[in-house]
Hints:
Layout: H1 3-9, E1 32-36, H2 45-59, E2 77-80, H3 85-90, H4 95-115, E3 119-123, H5 128-133, E4 138-141, H6 149-157, H7 160-166, E5 171-176, H8 179-185, E6 194-197, H9 220-233, H10 238-242, E7 253-257, H11 266-270, E8 275-278, H12 280-283, H13 288-303
Parallel strand pairs: 1-2, 1-8, 2-3, 3-4, 4-5, 5-6, 6-7, 7-8
Helix pairs in contact: 2-4, 2-13
Amino acid sequence: MSEQTEYADKSPFLKQSSPPSRISLQGRSLPILVMITKPDGIDTDDKAEETISTILNVLRSKIGVNDDQARRCSVDIISLRFSDKDRFLEQGGEDRLRKARFLRILRSVVLPADECGCAVVVNGYENVDVGMAGSCHGVHLREREAEYLKDLRERWAVDKKLNSDRSGRILIGLSVHSVDAACESVGFGDRPDYFLVGTAFPTLSHPEKVDPKDFEGPELAGLIKQKIIEKLSSKNQPQLETANPSNLVSSPLCISIGGINASNCHIPMISGADGVAVIGAISSSKEPEKTAWDLRRSMESAMR
């Protein structure tokens, strides 16, 4: 029995779901809005239910009324980023329960997200198996995991369960905190579909950053976007123009993250970012669907 099947068999409240359709960011109108879950979203059954409820509420908030926008959700990507496995186990949690709750969330939100063109990705290379079992749209990698880019795309492509419906296409994001890290990542034989570029502003996610000099700032996403386009346009990078052409169509989107909310999300956009990613602004909001709307409207205003 495969590890993926074992997760599902031990979770009686989970229903098997067919793989969702391919969701691409290429050609999607800007700005891009990424919702990231609370880190404790799978610590207990109640918190898993809360995570599901918040996501489904956001998915119900459509951004348009005409035929072209009728199916599009107010957010473009939902990233399931929970506290890492080691931290969970250290606090007395059971790995079996962690995986079961993770899968429960995936099987509850992936298909509704698919219906309105929103991608659901799991965070961290160690969660790839759970993501595959839950038929997610992709994976978000930490900066230190950039070397797995090519391996991850190849691994996804040969998974027959997903390959039958999605042609093996996976959406891959990568966290970066410098121009050098972003430029280096496109040399691993593939490249991500988008970067999460941080840290823009003070945030509870990085309590160790207290000095203003510790923050990379809201301008970094726009700067990385410019440098990556220059690098990929260089005649010194012919291999990037020919390897896997279906994926390497354009530069990865550059999305700003870190302490972003509706009152400051316009600042990265003015500096050239393709969008923003938020954690508490939506996930901790009493009205997550309204907050998502407010974020999008503020970003759109900054782009006019």
